[in-house]
Design a protein that fits this description.
5 strands; two-stranded antiparallel sheet; mainly alpha; 2 domains; 8 helices; single chain; three-stranded antiparallel β-sheet
Length: about 290
């Protein structure tokens, strides 16, 4: 529903709207924390599945017969010919993970839940500003959801490919004289780096979608301007801190990186937790 229709509805309910209006400011939109956790869990699951596959490959390597006449009791060593086979099998596992519905359905669910979250935030702001409830109905988010799915399938592929590349690097650098147990320790050290990257990707992608869907709701309602709001803590970047409280226009994003001149609306910069406070006509200078 557009702002014009909401303003008309406010006029129609008259004094009831005025009595219901309690807030003197528009409440800040909170971040979709549950959706960030769901995305983190999804990516962590993919990473864990690959870790299990790597462990299985190394377990098989431990059972390989020695060809270098070792002394009795010596641990097995990975031979050069085994490396290509391990990497090839891991790459096929990545392809299977990315092709299955059990990966795509959670991405679609996270997108839908993020959209629902932004609707709750928007409804709170409309109620505070105009004293009326937001009616049912949403702008079409299909394109945003499809982009979110495609973007994150690509990112998951990149995350998995990076893990396989790390495995390849460790195996190649180890050489045939390195014990499998020592290789396993080196690979476990790499696991933490991938898990950390997965958590960053999850947070960044859900925050980006949150910003995109919020903008789509505002624009569909007729909001053309907003106030840039940061989370106002020590993690806010200096460029974003400088934007806090400034009036901005949709379609004309401000500079978020003075060094490169890059422009982004709230929530689109990497790991950006900033939000757009809608400027609603007739409310606090809107």
């Amino acid at each position: 529903m557009t702002l014009a229709a909401l303003l008309h509805r406010r006029h129609a309910v008259g004094q009831r709207a005025a009595l219901r209006r309690r807030s003197t400011s528009i409440p800040a939109a909170g971040p979709p924390r549950a959706e960030i956790r769901a995305m983190t869990k999804l990516l962590a699951g993919v990473s864990s599945e690959l870790d299990d596959a790597i462990e299985q490959e190394l377990a098989a390597a431990r059972a390989l017969p020695r060809t270098d006449s070792p002394a009795d009791g010596d641990p097995p060593m990975l031979l050069p010919g085994h490396v290509a086979g391990i990497v090839d099998r891991l790459s096929r596992i990545v392809d299977r993970i990315l092709a299955r519905r059990s990966l795509l359905a959670p991405l679609d669910d996270i997108a839908a839940r993020t959209s629902a979250w932004t609707r709750v935030q928007w409804a709170r702001q409309v109620r505070a500003a105009l004293g009326v409830d937001l009616p049912a109905g949403d702008p079409d988010m299909a394109a945003l959801f499809a982009d979110f799915r495609a973007r994150n399938v690509a990112l998951i592929r990149s995350l998995a490919a990076d893990k396989v590349a790390r495995v390849h690097k460790v195996l190649t650098e180890a050489g045939s004289s390195t014990r499998v147990e020592d290789i396993a320790k080196a690979l476990r050290a790499e696991t933490g780096a991938t898990a950390s990257r997965a958590a960053l990707i999850a947070r960044d992608q859900v925050l980006k979608l949150n910003g995109e869907v919020t903008q789509a709701r505002h624009v569909a309602a007729g909001v053309t301007e907003y106030i840039w709001r940061t989370s106002r803590d020590e993690r806010v970047r200096e460029a974003h801190k400088a934007l806090d409280g400034t009036r901005q226009r949709y379609g004309e994003p401000p500079v978020v990186d003075p060094r490169t001149g890059r422009r982004e609306p709230p929530g689109r910069d990497f790991q950006c937790r900033c939000t757009a406070e809608p400027l609603i006509p007739g409310f606090d200078g809107g």
